[in-house]
């Protein structure tokens, strides 16, 4: 999204769950902190921090983040 976050679908508003998971996936796949198309990693990281950090993700998101 223009605000740097990611939604559940291409036209959806940005959510903490989707933005955090997309950011982590981009980093696991080898993108640097400023990597991705149009600095997607940096923009997503800023969106996450501006909206309370990854700890603001819903409980089911925390479950996904704990699985490795």
Name a few traits of the molecule.
Terpenoid_cyclase/PrenylTrfase, beta-amyrin synthase activity, isomerase, mainly alpha, 68 residues, Lupeol synthase, Squalene_cyclase
Q: What report would you give on this structure?
A:
- With 68 residues, this protein is mostly helical.
- It has one domain.
- 47% of the residues lie in helices and 0% in strands.
- It is built from three helices and no strands.
- Helix 1 packs antiparallel against helix 2.
- The longest helix has 13 residues.
- 19% of the residues are buried.
- The model has no long low-confidence stretch (mean pLDDT 92).
- GO terms for molecular function: beta-amyrin synthase activity.
Topology, element by element:
Blueprint: H1 16-28, H2 40-50, H3 59-66
Helix pairs in contact: 1-2
Task: Give a summary of the structure in a few sentences.
With 68 residues, the protein is an all-alpha fold.
> How many discrete structural domains?
1
Total of helices: 3
Which structural class do you get from the secondary structure elements? mainly alpha
Low-confidence stretches: none
């Amino acid at each position: 999204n223009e605000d740097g976050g990611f939604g559940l679908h291409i036209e959806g508003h940005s959510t903490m769950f989707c933005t955090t998971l997309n950011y982590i996936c981009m980093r696991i796949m080898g993108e640097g902190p400023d990597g991705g198309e149009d600095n997607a990693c940096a923009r997503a990281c800023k969106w996450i921090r501006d909206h309370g950090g990854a700890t603001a993700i819903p409980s089911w998101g925390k479950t996904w983040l704990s699985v490795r």
